[in-house]
Write a structure and sequence with these properties.
The chain is an alpha/beta fold. It contains 17 helices and 12 strands. The strands form 3 sheets. Strands 2-1-5-4-3 form a 5-stranded antiparallel beta sheet, covered by helices on one side. It has a 5-stranded parallel beta sheet with strand order 7-8-9-6-10, with helices on both faces.
Length: about 450
């Protein structure tokens, strides 16, 4: 269905109320001048754009507007909705209510008509027909939109999501690191996002084009290869005259041989203005066994990423972020979570931290048959863990929750390995996790001490 220059389109352009028309794939077919005026974006930039329900990290205005005006998934399932929209401007925000009206024409066209109020919203008064859970999902979506726009616009830290005091502290230290040439040491458990934080600090300078970000796997590579990479890094960029800063990222720096300390110390103390060193480790500095001075020279600025279980208040917005990222490419879109589902996630221990939450939401997104993720959509492995935890006897003996949940996870892995006849790929499939993640958990529980089997 296409709109051509005609009497109808000329008439539609005279309407003072902003409106737009989307097809069944959430692609914009038409918008009027009133919508252009409200959003500050020309129709030529918006026509053909996908208006999927997600939080955009783009810096392109038309993509930002497309995300801000995206209909909730319920509208494409025939449910009329009325929600509050927010358009970010340079010095202010414009907030208006909009009606999302499903359309179904006998000739085969299906889509959504969006009618935006002419006046600004002065009070938040959602439709009485809107359920509490739908309203909560919409509010979480709007919060995520605003949060990611602010972070992406200033520091490109669109995934550094969190309202907890611990994450606010991480962002403050990261901003300090962006403005400094000092070495940075990032500490945190596996799956907490150390490499992502390192790249966020690197790209936080907003250089265009950005400098090089060169990661080195210290736990895997031999000393000779690490040394040659460091020398090559220094030589390649030492005479560059641009303001770009290049970053060498030492992943698992606690695995560096102690004999490499002089080279690393020289790099840090005599590095060029356009070169910096960022390192990470899952071990606390007092647990390093390679060289006692390594953490000191690497940690001019030290940032500790908290495990997810220590910032549970961040789980709802993180879960919403991962869900909307899957909306980008999935055939079906989801708007959020039921209250029970969010409560369920808040109770889980998340030994794999953010990486595990991301995998869990991806699986729930695939499993769900409704626009809201329910408890039954959460992978069965996680439900078994929490159901087992709920059966703890009610006595006065103290319970170490961390070790209790780890024992349950270990038992589930053992069962899966037995059923799969020690085939790691099949065991990972039974557990609903990726093979690399299973290997990390096997290493954690000490299952990889013996020689691998042939059917590994």
């Amino acid at each position: 269905m296409k709109f051509r220059s005609s009497r109808l389109t000329r008439f539609l352009q005279t309407i003072h109320q902003p409106f737009l028309l989307l097809d069944g794939d959430a692609t914009l077919l038409f918008c009027n001048r009133a919508l252009e005026t409200w959003t500050g974006c020309q129709a030529e930039q918006l026509i053909g754009q996908s208006f999927r329900y997600r939080s955009s990290t783009s810096r392109q205005k038309h993509e930002i507007i497309a995300a801000a005006l995206a209909p909730p998934p319920e509208a494409f399932q025939g449910q009329r909705c009325r929600i509050l929209l927010t358009i970010d401007r340079i010095t202010s925000q414009s907030r208006r209510y909009a009606d999302f009206i499903p359309l179904s024409i006998p000739q085969g066209f299906n889509g959504v008509l969006v009618l935006v109020d002419e006046s600004e919203a002065t009070t938040v008064t959602p439709e009485q027909s809107e359920t509490t859970e739908r309203k909560a999902a919409s509010e979480l979506h709007q919060t995520l939109l605003s949060f990611r726009r602010r972070q992406a616009g200033r520091f490109r830290w669109d995934r550094m999501i969190g309202v907890s005091p611990l994450m606010q502290r991480v962002r403050r230290l990261a901003r300090l690191a962006v403005d400094s040439t000092a070495s940075v040491l990032i500490l945190g458990e596996s799956g907490t996002g150390k490499e992502h934080l390192a790249s966020a600090i690197h790209y936080g300078q907003n250089n265009d084009p950005p400098g090089a970000f060169v990661p080195i796997e210290c736990q895997i590579l031999e000393q000779e290869l690490i040394t040659s990479t460091i020398y090559a890094f220094r030589k390649r960029f030492q005479r560059e005259e641009t303001s770009r800063r290049h970053t060498l990222f030492l992943k698992d720096a606690d695995a560096l041989p102690g004999t490499m300390y002089p080279l690393i110390a020289e790099f840090v103390t005599t590095s060029y203005a356009n070169q910096r060193l960022i390192a990470s480790s899952t071990q606390l500095p007092n647990q390093w066994t390679n060289h006692e001075a390594f953490p000191i020279v690497l940690g001019t600025i030290t940032i500790e990423l908290p495990p997810l279980r220590c910032r549970k208040e961040d789980i709802p917005i993180l879960a919403q972020m991962f869900l909307e990222e899957h909306n980008e490419t999935a055939n079906r879109q989801r708007s959020g979570f039921t209250a029970d589902a969010l409560d369920f996630l808040m109770q889980y221990y998340f030994p794999g931290n953010i990486e595990e939450l991301e995998w869990l939401i991806a699986e729930a997104h695939r499993q769900s048959n409704t626009t809201l993720i329910t408890v039954s959509d959460i992978p069965i492995r996680v439900r078994h863990v929490l159901e087992a935890a709920a059966q703890i006897p009610a006595d006065n003996k103290p319970i170490e929750l961390e070790s209790f949940l780890q024992n349950i996870e270990k038992e589930l892995i053992e069962r899966a390995l037995h059923l799969a006849e020690n085939n790691k790929s099949k065991a990972a499939e039974l557990l609903g996790m990726t093979r690399p993640r299973l290997y990390r958990r096997l290493e954690f529980f000490g299952f990889l001490d013996s020689e691998p089997q042939k059917n590994d």
